[in-house]
């Protein structure tokens, strides 16, 4: 992977170009390794490194709750019940949720006081939600439909490792 190129060139490129790079680099990572923990950990690091978001991580479905998986960022809450918070709501609704201001989301779970906006992307296997990707930003209104579309594509590649 061209890590130096990534680190030195990201400041000046558009969000869509960043997604193009992230998709390419994810495929390079996954093609070279089959270990689930390695691949999920690197996938989260790739998003954090590319977009400099505050917190990026996975919660996996375990029975009636979500359990924290590989992530990048500050320490986070470990378990989230079905339908609770943004993550549990995205799981229950089985759709991506974009929250421009987390303080206006009823039941938002504040793992970090810095978080201002959030996107949660459910990850499906055979129509079942098996995990969610959660991304937090310290900026209000960070995420839009492009993020939803691109992160859904990104997450689809992670299904074999969840
Ligand atoms: N804010 C999330 C909880 C997870 S942390 O942000 C990492 C929620 O409301 O579900």
List descriptors.
single chain; 162 residues; alpha+beta; Beta-Lactamase; 6-stranded antiparallel beta sheet; 6 strands; binds methionine sulfoxide
Overview of the structural elements:
With 162 residues, the chain is of the alpha+beta class. It has one domain (4-161): Beta-Lactamase (2-Layer Sandwich). It contains 5 helices and 6 strands. It has helices at residues 3-9, 15-31, 36-51, 85-93, 145-156; strands at residues 55-62, 65-72, 79-81, 97-99, 117-125, 128-137. β5 (117-125) and β6 form a beta hairpin. Bound molecules: methionine sulfoxide (SME). Methionine sulfoxide is lined by residues 55, 76-77, 80, 85-87, 108-109, 111, 115, 118, 134, 136. The site of methionine sulfoxide has 14 residues, from α4 and β6.
Number of strands: 6
Query: What hetero molecules are bound to the protein chains?
Result: methionine sulfoxide
Task: Supply the CATH superfamily name.
Answer: GAF domain
- Rg computed from alpha carbons, rounded to a whole number of angstroms: 15 Å
Q: Count of helices? A: 5
Q: How many structural units, i.e. domains?
A: 1
Shape: globular
Largest sheet: 6 strands, antiparallel
How large a portion of the residues is in β-strands, by DSSP E?
25-35%
Could you give the topology of this structure?
Blueprint: H1 3-9, H2 15-31, H3 36-51, E1 55-62, E2 65-72, E3 79-81, H4 85-93, E4 97-99, E5 117-125, E6 128-137, H5 145-156
Antiparallel strand pairs: 1-2, 1-6, 2-3, 4-5, 5-6
Bound molecules: methionine sulfoxide.
